[in-house]
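stage 2 :: seqdesign
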């Protein structure tokens, strides 16, 4: 028997009933996954959701692994999940990414016919209830046209060449293993850092615009600040990747484009809110880029991921192999 074609890894934290919706939509795919690996942070929330449902009996291809918030790491948690898979491809998803049709997996696998493509990632579409600002953010970052990203596009697209999102992204496991998986510890951006290293190795990243997932967040200005602080930290930790590619032009395009979009939608009254969000993003990002000049108290105040810093400052709190928290299936569920 040959290797399974594709396994799916889903990261969950305090999941709700939408997880059931996600799994049902994955069952309807024209190309089904052999195994679905759930990496769940904080066991009690998932236990409460699944209690009395006979979930594992009804979903025999699903396996669940629990970890604590302190153990969670954007890179290492996904790397551990990959060890549970023997498939040719791994599709990494988050619990809030909902496939919009039955062709998500087939559209992500189609670019893989090109052996130079190491990763393909999906188009994210905002929900119907998302704010106009968030809808434009998705339109800007996830356009309707496919895009092949490699060293040949660096001059034209700059940092967009490294753009990728593990909200829904398919990896060729051979390339994933050869590259050593994701960086760890990782506060953020493990997907873009992987993509950048893959491009440097001569590989390509493919944006598959017909692979559709619904995914959006209406963050407050404060949440934008914290999120972009962590983004700045991740870029500061990898200057060789990010410092050579200025992001200012993309930021300017986003601001101008969103203002024009709000005007065209008759939502001019949202422009002040949008500009406040932009300032919060910028301020958070700039502080994150200079995090090594900040006191610990300030970092914990600004970050979205305090557990990352607890590990970063004292990595002995988490066992190297993480076996203390991994590998426990949800008994009786």
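stage 2 :: out
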């Amino acid at each position: 028997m040959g290797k399974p074609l594709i396994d799916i890894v889903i990261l969950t934290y305090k999941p709700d009933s939408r997880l059931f919706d996600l799994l049902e939509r994955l069952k309807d795919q024209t190309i089904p996954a052999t195994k679905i690996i759930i990496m769940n942070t904080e066991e009690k929330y998932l236990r409460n959701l699944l209690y009395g449902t006979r979930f594992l009996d009804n979903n025999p291809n699903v396996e669940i692994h629990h970890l604590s918030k302190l153990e969670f790491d954007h890179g290492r948690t996904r790397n551990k999940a990959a060890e549970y898979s023997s498939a040719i491809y791994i599709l990494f998803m988050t619990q809030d990414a909902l496939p919009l049709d039955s062709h998500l997996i087939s559209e992500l696998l189609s670019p893989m016919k090109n052996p130079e493509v190491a990763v393909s990632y999906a188009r994210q579409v905002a929900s119907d209830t998302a704010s106009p600002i968030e809808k434009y953010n998705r339109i800007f970052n996830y356009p309707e046209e496919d895009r092949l990203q490699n060293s040949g596009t660096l001059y034209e697209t700059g940092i967009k060449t490294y753009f990728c999102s593990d909200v829904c992204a398919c990896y060729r496991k051979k390339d994933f293993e050869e590259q050593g998986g994701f960086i760890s510890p990782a506060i953020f951006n493990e997907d873009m850092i992987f993509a950048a290293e893959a491009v440097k190795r001569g590989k390509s990243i493919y944006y598959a615009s017909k692979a559709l997932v619904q995914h959006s967040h209406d963050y407050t200005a404060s949440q934008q600040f914290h999120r972009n602080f962590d983004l700045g930290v991740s870029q500061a930790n990898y200057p060789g990747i990010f410092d050579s590619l200025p992001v200012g032009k993309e930021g300017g395009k986003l601001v101008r484009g969103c203002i024009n979009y709000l005007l065209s939608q008759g939502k001019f009254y949202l422009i002040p809110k949008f500009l406040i969000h932009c300032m919060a993003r910028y301020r958070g990002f700039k502080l994150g880029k200079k995090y090594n000049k900040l006191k610990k108290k300030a970092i914990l105040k600004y970050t979205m991921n305090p557990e990352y810093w607890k590990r970063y400052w004292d990595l002995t709190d988490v066992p190297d192999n993480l076996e203390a928290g991994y590998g426990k299936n949800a008994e009786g569920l």
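stage 3 :: structure notes
- Residues 219-317 form one domain.
- The beta strands are 6-13, 35-41, 62-67, 89-94, 98-99, 117-125, 147-149, 168-172, 204-214.
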